[in-house]
């Protein structure tokens, strides 16, 4: 029987919800491009309910306990003596979400001799030391596509919020003001701007598709070029590297995984090549941008705005400089954890567990590491240090 250790974010401060704003979720047939939605044999939760917090338990308890497995759920994940550290010692499976990542460092993996499977209930497995997972034969899987569109919607929202300077205008309303001039002195139209994405995978391409009707000039860079018909349909300009693309753009959105190739990509040097007053949106991973270089660029005016929902570490400390830097539109890490996304990644997590517990193969597109090597999506989109 397996022990499954699940690290989830805390319940709302006023308690687990007794009711919801809407009665249900739209039913989707499949993801754009044709990949099927998660296909567990059954689910024991109500789609649209809060599943990603401790009391939601990703809807897994009944399924696991009926089969004799042990499920431990905690939000206590950091520091020596955390519940995560204590429970890890004999865990077979760790489930964690990027929003509240249980950092599976090389040291922790070394202290978890039973660990065979690390599931990301979401997308982005950089909180797992992939080299260590490979060395110890730990399979790493994530629910590919589950929240890609959720993030793409958040990116579009953040681009418009920054360019139009929405948040300060809203604040004037909350403060009882009617300050038109204050509200518009940094407000522009997106129309006609050059917008580029670093990576045109599931999220990046969805962002490009959603921005096309705004009559902007679209740019992208990626390790693999998109099909010519997609480039033509969206009027895309391809650039071989982020450094080639950045100087051409008024808005850059980062949609690549964090791995050795992308770590610290947006440093002082690269940001200095961008147009003065460009906007940078990063919902991918915080460490793709140099934390202090972003602050410096906002303070000097080199960047007109920065927004995103990814921080390092998570949760971000109260004195993290991105909380107080000028002209930012940061949220906590929420873009991929809408109630809609939660239903998909809870179902996908169950699908992965069903397969693994039955000794069946996990869908190739969910795999990041398997059989001591990058595999599936991991082999295509990630790199290792060695
Ligand atoms: P995909 O795997 O579909 O796309 C990732 C893309 O990044 C691929 O096209 C890949 O290229 C490309 N890429 C990798 N390295 C580079 C590089 N050095 N330069 C340019 N492109 C590169 O993933 P998603 O689009 O679904 O997600 C992307 C990332 O977004 C995730 O890894 C995660 O970090 C983040 N994310 C954030 C969420 C949030 O809540 N904020 C939620 C979900 C994801 P190729 O495959 O062509 O080699």
UniProtKB/TrEMBL annotation:
In chain numbering, the residues marked as site (Important for catalytic activity) are 285, 333
For this protein, the record's Gene3D superfamilies field holds: NAD(P)-binding Rossmann-like Domain (3.40.50.720)
- CDD domains associated with the record: FDH
Predominant location: cytoplasm
Read off the SUPFAM superfamilies from this record: Formate/glycerate dehydrogenase catalytic domain-like (SSF52283), NAD(P)-binding Rossmann-fold domains (SSF51735)
Q: Which UniProt keywords apply?
A: Cytoplasm, NAD, Oxidoreductase
Cell compartments where the protein resides: Cytoplasm
Q: Where does substrate bind?
A: 123, 147
Q: Which residues bind NAD(+)?
A: 148, 202-203, 222, 257-261, 283, 309, 333-336, 381
**EC no.?**
1.17.1.9
D-isomer specific 2-hydroxyacid dehydrogenase catalytic domain location? 62-363
Q: Which InterPro entries has this protein been placed in?
A: D-isomer_2_OHA_DH_cat_dom (IPR006139), D-isomer_DH_CS1 (IPR029752), D-isomer_DH_NAD-bd (IPR006140), FDH_NAD-dep (IPR033689), NAD(P)-bd_dom_sf (IPR036291)
**Enzyme class, spelled out:** oxidoreductase
- UniProt record similarity statement: Belongs to the D-isomer specific 2-hydroxyacid dehydrogenase family. FDH subfamily.
User: Entry's PANTHER family?
Assistant: FORMATE DEHYDROGENASE 1 (PTHR42938:SF9)
What's this chain's function?
A: Catalyzes the NAD(+)-dependent oxidation of formate to carbon dioxide. Formate oxidation is the final step in the methanol oxidation pathway in methylotrophic microorganisms. Has a role in the detoxification of exogenous formate in non-methylotrophic organisms.
This one is known as Formate dehydrogenase
Q: What is the lineage of its organism?
A: Bacteria, Bacillati, Actinomycetota, Actinomycetes, Streptosporangiales
